[in-house]
Amino acid sequence: xxxxxxxxxxxxxxxxxxxxxxxxxxxxxxxxxxxxxxxxxxxxxxxxxxxxxxxxxxxxxxxxxxxxxxxxxxxxxxxxxxxxxxxxxxxxxxxxxxxxxxxxxxxxxxxxxxxxxxxxxxxxxxxxxxxxxxxxxxxxxxxxxxxxxxxxxxxxxxxxxxxxxxxxxxxxxxxxxxxxxxxxxxxxxxxxxxxxxxxxxxxxxxxxxxxxxxxxxxxxxxxxxxxxxxxxxxxxxxxxxxxxxxxxxxxxxxxxxxxxxxxxxxxxxxxxxxxxxxxxxxxxxxxxxxxxxxxxxxx
Length: 299
What we know:
Elements: H1 3-30, H2 44-67, H3 73-103, H4 108-133, H5 152-178, H6 182-187, H7 199-223, H8 228-240, H9 257-283, H10 286-297
């Protein structure tokens, strides 16, 4: 790779990061978030630095997805916007809406945050597609049928297995990583809310979220070129980072940095593992494996 090629790629990346940063500010002006508390003035430089870091990391994830895609133009734009908004915002705000009462968070705040992200996603996705997804002819058609179940029965048992795996990862990492932080436990009222922390409600909610994770990951699984492990890494990064980079920014909802760090490590790690598992399981076809084994065993 020549120096010129590297320089052009870096300039494109920095340009999209700049678009992200400005679009984030503009989105905040279009949909202001009204909180009962505000970020202390001495934390504002860290807010600025956090916003830049979020823009840099999220842009890198989107750039990887766009450059690895076999799709082009508006098809690519719609797929990336759908996958990114769903994993970064929609699923996160379901959590915020559910756990909001234990944090003293008004119900309208997660809704406002979900609306605020729409112009950001639309603008930055367009910039990314223009930068990396429109050059050159479309890639050779990709036969991705083997990357997901072939029929309804296979979909059902795999979604059930994915839900079970998600529950293990969600509650396992939640307890082992996040819940061991006493400041975090205190912030959630030590789990005393009988509705928010009720297994009768929380288990079905997380099972639904597991299916939504799959839904938003499917466009990337469908359009990404490369080996199964390369696709799995893309999906893992998509599920792990955009939703969690917001923890880099000091905010009045989670003012304590140790709480934000605990949540980041908990969710980024578990979601990355979950993304790898989802991609592998959807593309694993035991019947095909057994048939190949049988053919190989024949003399």
